[in-house]
Amino acid sequence: MAESDVKLNSTDKAALILLAVGQERAASVLKNMGPKEVQVIGTAMAGLGTISTDMVDIVLEDFIIQIKDQTGLGLDSDNYIRSMLVDALGEDKAGSVIDRILLGGNSKGIEQLKWMDTRSIADLVRVEHPQIVATILSLLDADQSAAVLGLLAENMRSDILMRIAKMETIQPAAIKELDEMMEKQLSGSDSVKASTVGGIDAAANILNYMEGNLTEEMMETINENDEVLGQEIQDKMFVFADLINVDDRGIQSILREVSTDQLLLALRGVTEELKTKIFGNMSKRAAEMLADDLEAAPPTKLSQVEESQKDILVIAKKLADSGEIMLGSGGGDELV
Description:
Elements: H1 10-21, H2 23-30, H3 35-47, H4 53-70, H5 77-103, H6 108-111, H7 118-125, H8 130-139, H9 142-151, H10 154-166, H11 172-185, H12 200-208, H13 212-225, H14 227-236, H15 248-256, H16 260-266, H17 272-279, H18 284-296, H19 302-321
Helix pairs in contact: 1-3, 7-9, 8-10, 9-12, 10-12, 10-13, 12-14, 13-14, 16-19
C-alpha cells in the first residue's frame, strides 16, 4: 500500500500511534493531555475502524522520521515540545497545554472544572457573583463555557457575557484566590501564571458555540445595554454563513477534514450561494451525490443542523489558527 492510499489526518495518525504502542503506554500519554485533547484523540481512536499492518508501518515510519529530524542530544527540549504541540493541536489549543507542561500554567483547582460535566459546573457557579462566574468561564474552553452559560438563568447570561467581553487582564493573585476557592469545593491547588482572560474574542467564541436562539436573545439584551459593545462582539463572531467569504483553497482544506454525513447535515437550510460554493470545491461526482442526498434526506431537527455547522466551524478555526486558511478573506491577500 502506498502512503498516498492512507487517508489519515494528523489526529487520526496520533490516534493510530497510541493504538499501536499498547494500552499502558497510551494511557501514560493521555494522562498528560487535557480533557479536550483526550476527547478528540479518543473519538479518533474509536473511529479508525479496521487498521492494517501497512497503515501502522506507514504512520510509524513517518513519525520516526519526524522524530529523527527534530530531536537529538543537546537540543532545546522546550522548543521541540512547543513546536510538536503546535503542529499537533494548532496554536489555539496548544497554548494551554504548553503552559501546563512547561510553565506549570493553569491551576489544578480551576483545571479540574474542565473534566466535569457542564451541568455540575453550572450548579457550582450559579450562586457566585457574576464577575466570579465570568472569570471562571473565561478560563474554560469556549465550547464548555457556552454549554455552562446556556444552563444558567436567563437573566444572568447577558450580564456574564458582557463582563467577559469587557475583561482584559486579571492579576495572578486574583486568579490564585479564585483557584483556592475552587479548591475548597473540589481539590488541588497550584499557582497560576496566566493573566490575560476574557475580552471581545472570548465572548464571541462562546457565542459561536451556543444555540442560535440563545445567541439571538443574548445579543439583543447586550445591544440594549451597550450597542457599541454588542457590535464589537458581533464583528468578531464567525458563523457558518461566513464560509462564503473563505477562498476556494480554504474551502478545500476544510472539506478534507469534514465527513460527508457532517456536511450533509450542515448544508440544510443554507443559501444556494453557499451550497454552490461548497459544491464547486468538490469533484463533480462527489458534488452530484451530495446534492442528491441533500434533496432526498428526511427532515432533521434544527439543533442537529446547528451542531454539525458548529463542528465544521471548529475545524475551520483550527485551520485558521495554524495559518493554513484565512477566514473571511474574501480573496484578499493570498497566503504564500
